[in-house]
Amino acid sequence: MSPETYKVVGLMSGTSLDGLDIALCEFVRGDTWSYRIVEAETVTYPESIASLLRSIDKADAESLVKAQVHYGSYLGEQVRKFLAERGCSADFVSSHGHTIYHQPGNGFTFQLGDGAALSVAAGLPVVSDFRMQDVALGGQGAPLVPVGDQLLFGEFTHCLNLGGIANISFSAGNRRVAGDLCPCNLLLNPVAARRGLPFDRDGQLAQNGQPNSELLAELSALPYYRRSMPKSLGREDLERDYDPILSRFRLREEDLLATLCEHIATSIAAGIRAPEGSTAPGKLLVTGGGARNHYLLELIRKKSPVAVCVPDGSIIDFKEALIFAFLGLLRWRQEVNVLASVTGAHRDHCAGSIYL
């Protein structure tokens, strides 16, 4: 039987509001899955969209519904433009959406970006809404990326994403385990913004600061760090638990960033287990925007019990868009794309809504 080939556009919008990641990915199903990123781009949000995403969680019901459709249409328009400019085609689009609410303990999660509006604007079928089924099945609705980590990046014992939130997945015996370790760019970027910067490039501000031991102690004492996997974080957790602590400290931006980087690296190291049943050293794949923060990365290297590996730029920047394209493909093929061992759901399942 000849290998099956699919071309899928993956869309990812992270909590740090860096922009919309668009990746046209090719997947080939042989004895195992292989992949390549054909084309990719990060589209900076216009201020109208960025402002909408920052504030819509406080909006009334009618405004939320309007935003759901408007943002879905925006996503579809960006896909159509992306493909047209490159003369490329795709079988379908797989969209994560933009997380507005994530409260699995209250039985819901919500990602903005209507799949029907997206499909019409893009002129392609769409797979979207990946998280809610898992929450309905008693899971955390996150993280979802570990299926892709296992099937596409199996040569690494651990996969760490340094996005708005730092999350990790790794193999523990015969099962995959994953969870959110701590906030990452959601903590760092607002501090850089106080200096008029979108982020702390290469960690230059942080490396000129001194960690504050009192703030470190308060952050490390948060109850979240005593919970076991699976567990997940949302923006609401930052507003409730982290912001009140940070607001009590009047530190220079350099010192605050140095403290936060120390906290992030320590939390990550605490969440990394050596691979079970193997004498070979573990390998940690690090991706996401935080992988370009050299200061943070060096702290992680010093504290990590496994070897830290940083891939080429396209994987650093577009791994999550790639994997959501892959999750959409598994949904398209009606195969499992969410692991109960990762999310805490009652069973493995095939999640996502399809719009033809």
Describe what you observe in this structure.
Helix 2 packs parallel to helix 3, helix 6 packs antiparallel against helix 9 and helix 9 runs parallel beside helix 10. The protein folds into two domains: 176 residues, Nucleotidyltransferase, domain 5; 169 residues, 2-Layer Sandwich (Nucleotidyltransferase, domain 5), CATH 3.30.420.40. By secondary structure, the protein is of the alpha/beta class.
Which helices and strands occur, and which strands form pairs?
Blueprint: E1 4-13, E2 20-29, E3 33-43, H1 47-55, H2 61-86, E4 92-95, E5 98-103, E6 108-112, H3 115-122, E7 126-128, H4 132-136, H5 146-152, E8 158-162, E9 165-172, E10 175-183, H6 185-193, H7 213-220, H8 235-247, H9 253-271, E11 283-287, H10 294-303, E12 307-309, H11 313-332, H12 340-343, E13 353-355
Helix pairs in contact: 2-3, 5-11, 6-9, 7-9, 9-10
Strand content: 15-25%
| Strand line-up of the largest beta sheet | 3-2-1-4-7-13
Which architecture of the largest domain per CATH? Answer: 2-Layer Sandwich
The radius of gyration over CA amounts to 20 Å
* Backbone structural class: alpha/beta
Report the major sheet.
6 strands, mixed
